[in-house]
Amino acid sequence: MAKNAVITHPESLKRPAGPSEYAKDPVNASLTKADKIALYTKMARVRHFEQRCIRTYQQGKIGGFLHLYVGQEAVAAGTISLLGKFDHIITGYRDHAHGLLVGMNMKECMAELTGKVTGCSKGKGGSMHYFAPDKNYWGGHGIVGGQAPLGTGLAYAVKYRGQKGSCLTYMGDGAINQGAVHEAYNLAALWDLPIIFVIENNGYSMGTSQERSTAHPGCLAKRAEGYNMAWDVVNGHDVYEVRAKTAIALKRAHEESKPTILEIFTYRYFGHSMSDPDKTYRDKEEVKGYRETKDPVFLFEKELLNEGVLTKELVESINAAAMEEADAAAAFADESPEPTVADITKHIYWEEDNRGPKTTSRGTIIFE
Amino acid sequence: MAVISYREALRAAMREELKRDENVVIMGEEVAQFNGAYKVTEGLLKEFGPKRVVDTPISEAGFIGLGIGASMLGIRPVMELMFWSFSYVAFDQVVNNAGNIRYMSGGLINCPIVIRGPANGGTNVGATHSHTPEAILASHPGIKVVCPATPYDAKGLMKAAIRDNDPVYVMENTILYNDKGEVPDEDYIVPIGVADIKREGTDLTIVAHGRAVITSLKAAEILEKEHGVSVEVVDLRSIRPLDEETILASVRKTHRALLVEENKPFCGVDAQIAYLIQARAFDELDAPIGRVSSIDAPQIYSKKLEDLQLPYPARVVEAALKILA
What we know:
The complex is a heterodimer. In chain A, 41% of the residues lie in helices and 9% in strands. Chain A is α/β, with parallel strands linked by helices. In chain A, helix 7 links the parallel strand 2 and strand 3. Chain A is globular and about 65 Å long. The model of chain A has no long low-confidence stretch (mean pLDDT 96). Chain B is of the alpha/beta class. Chain B has a seven-stranded mixed β-sheet, sandwiched between helices. In chain B, helix 9 (269-281) links the parallel strand 13 (257-260) and strand 14 (290-292). Chains A and B meet through helix 6, helix 7 and helix 13 of A and helix 3 and helix 4 of B.
């Protein structure tokens, strides 16, 4: 196997985790105490939601796939915390965090996992297909890399309308070898689209390490140079750094209408999905090491304790509330009704669901 | 009423819709500066400028996916595929994303995209450029597929497709691009899902779509002149939605059915039509349903043989006489 260049890690990742070097970055310094507490609370909510999902899955209530975000919280929380009215997001199948962070509630998210009609997609999408277009969240997509051209299209639409906005298009490190992603890169750079491709690099494309899957010139983001696109590497364990570097890319999108690739180094604590026994491709010690030294939620907690923003009591009450909210969501999902057989053939066509004087098409569209 | 070509009819539809709705964007390989690989979009760049008429790189998965994403935000992209055969490199976008997004989001997201281009054999370009994927695509709930056979239908269906809030895939035919026909000067649409009786008759119903309609009309002419048979030709125009009632009404009148399409026979559109007729008009039939499709092989390059591989009037006549015997 050809040797890759030495990985270009963000500077901060080369040192043991300590106080964030980005705390004083203007984008973070401008945060109020309440903003910081809110950001921490959001990260804690994501973690407790995901951990509650494990229990629901083990109870046999979640079918299909369940890809957890535990360990990666700072990536979605940091990036999404900067977005405005005309900024959109789209991601792959590890999509719960993004949903919660744009403001979806735990109840609709949990009910979707258990396939209930009260779910955000009415039980038709499942874990990989959360959507909240009213909150600029365009999913939740199951096919690796398939969302990259869609994100490029969202950015195209923003530019077409002359809005000062962007589309953050998330993907895992495994997605970047898909042709569709490269086609999206080319179009984004060729047409100067306001897009940020966020590579959430957790080191493994399912059970295949980056070293065994990907030829690269030092890091995955650097492939941007082949498209004459800006790029950066980010320590995804530090939410302040995520915010600081995303803010630069966002400014590039808003003010110059130019794309960026951000490779955010992160780590997932659980298997690729719940059906991955996580025994063959990585060392238990590796996981333990990340949990103990680079945990994004604990690092931010520590940061805010040091800043005097959080207190031990506040941390406890925030986490207790998040757990309670997740439990309530699970209870809501339990109590919610299943969709009916009649629901199977709804939401296929706009036209079928909106029959009236304005609909012109006729004929049989759903077949027996 | 002007007499214009199928190509001009398509162009007129796009031109009128570009004028009517600022969200309409034409996009595809060679559609702008080159004036269209088949000149369907000729002159549109000059008239509407590069914001509305956009050349893409050869990158079908990328630009079709981009169009789908833009349509989710309310842009109405009309995407040209130089050949529908090229949709195969964008299949994930065409099927998984455009076809499923509304369903998987529980109806929260619409995808008002049009993808258009030729889908036909008979042009001596070999198997990879001669696919007719209407049956493959129409088999996916969430997608609409239309196949105009005449300039009137080409314009009316294209305008309906652009105004439609669901993904509509328009399958054209390069052999028909120069065909001429009457097209009204005033604004009109052909509603999607309505078949058209292109020729009335009493002895046999031929159901066809796309260029097979033209072939069937020629066969019907021969059948009448040389065999004294009165043939009714039903042009489906739309594959999904499907106008089942018009097909059934015609079969109930003639009691005999011949299904003609340029697809290969296995799982073709006509397999579904044959099922429909036997399920809902079995007792009306005086003879087994007949089919004429392309000969079941990858499209052959040889021009002479390709013309024989596709349905042609004499084959249709022969199959009709068998049913009428």
